[in-house]
Design brief:
- By secondary structure, the chain is α/β, with parallel strands linked by helices.
- It contains 14 helices and 15 strands.
- Strand 11, helix 9 and strand 12 form a beta-alpha-beta unit.
- The mean pLDDT is 94.
Length: 374
């Protein structure tokens, strides 16, 4: 096939980027003619034809202009199949890795005051994304691939789409890259991070700290410290607004227990140094970091509003029903502050990840592309 893969920007790190790269490499290895419709692709991909598309400057204009020029390029290219990883006006297959924006705004409204809700409702970026989303999810010429059962239900509920016509292909994980740390690796990583060897170490990884529920995780940590868990340390890695959260940590008297690490390409070292992965997301289509943590033998605590919660059964992690409830988050964390249970949970976590290898996920996605070829 002549296949167009649509991605506005690509950089060679991060869970979504690993997935996109593997899809592209698999298409090439199967002998397909691959064309990349992109504004910026910051990694070599031998064998692919790269079409660098112009966009207008600025967040909203860039999003809308890429959506349009990508659709034009896809039509002109007369490709056998089009696979988009971004919200565009292309027909073909759209992998809804960013979930349903309308659902996120509904979840966000629940923790905002009236003024903030009004600002969100009128913000050009949100209006643009909702417009693009509606065009995508109501277009019968677009085959939708959700990353979780929850995502399929959200799209069907908000846009009247037949759920039976929405494929579900969960994320996969590179099992050869994300593996449980040896005791020696764990000690070395904890020393490098300056962590006390006996400290309980919680880890949160993700971009967009508001959506990932970091504020409520800090409140839960405050409760646990008040109960006497003085040897708790929280590592927070990823891209987000740190300053207001750091102020909150200082106000709650837990600033000494929180490490703000920023974006990192060495996330495996953080998994190696940690005991428990905690991400009480307000909304999350499917966190690659949750699956990576499971693969590294870390039990996961996340919310029912996260697609990755569909993998958790109590042996490999816990599900928070309401991510704004700090007491509930604290209770789910407390369940794992036992070395024996943590050890058993780590084994169950790895076993779960073994059922979701990256290669199988990519193969399932490409089978949808084959079914929907032009």
């Amino acid at each position: 096939m002549r296949v167009a893969l649509v991605r506005q920007r690509y950089a060679p790190f991060g869970g979504a980027e690993i997935y996109t790269q593997r899809v592209a490499e698999t298409l090439l290895s199967h002998g397909h003619e691959l064309h990349l419709l992109t504004h910026r692709w910051a990694a070599p991909l031998p064998g692919a034809v790269v079409h660098r598309l112009p966009v207008l400057p600025g967040g909203v204009l860039r999003t809308l202009s890429f959506a349009w020029v990508a659709a034009v390029a896809a039509r002109r290219g007369r490709y056998d199949a089009v696979l988009s990883f971004d919200r565009t006006l292309c027909t073909g297959v759209y992998r809804a890795g960013e979930g349903c924006h309308r659902e996120w705004l509904c979840r966000r409204a629940g923790v905002q005051g009236p003024a903030a809700r009004l600002v969100t409702a009128l913000h050009p970026r949100h209006r643009a994304l909702l417009w693009l989303e509606r065009r995508l999810f109501t277009n019968p010429g677009v085959r939708i691939v959700a990353t979780a059962v929850r995502g399929r239900e959200e799209i069907a509920r908000h846009y009247g789409r037949d759920p039976d016509g929405i494929a579900v292909v969960r994320n996969g994980v590179a099992l050869e890259r994300f593996t449980p740390a040896t005791p020696e690796e764990r000690v070395r990583m904890r020393v490098a991070l300056g962590l006390p060897q006996g400290a309980w170490t919680l880890l949160a990884v993700g971009s967009g700290f508001e959506r990932k529920g970091v504020r409520f995780l800090l409140e839960a940590l405050t409760l646990l410290r008040a109960e006497g868990w003085k040897d708790l340390v929280l590592l927070v890695a990823g891209k987000g607004r740190v300053r207001p959260l750091a102020r909150l940590a200082r106000a709650r008297g837990i600033a000494d227990a929180v490490r703000w690490l920023g974006p990192t390409r060495r996330v495996q070292e953080l998994y190696a140094a940690s005991d428990l992965f905690v991400l009480p997301s307000l909304y999350d289509p499917f966190s690659s970091a949750c699956l990576e943590a499971l693969a590294c033998g870390l039990p996961v605590v996340t919310s029912r509003w996260a697609g990755a919660s569909e993998l958790l059964d109590g042996t490999n992690g816990s599900v928070v029903r309401e991510p704004t409830d700090a007491a509930e988050i604290a209770a789910r964390i407390r369940e794992w502050l036992d070395r024996d249970r943590l050890r058993a949970g780590g084994e169950a976590a790895r076993a779960t990840a073994l059922r979701h290898p990256l290669g199988e996920s990519v193969a399932a996605l490409l089978s949808v592309v084959q079914e929907g070829r032009a």
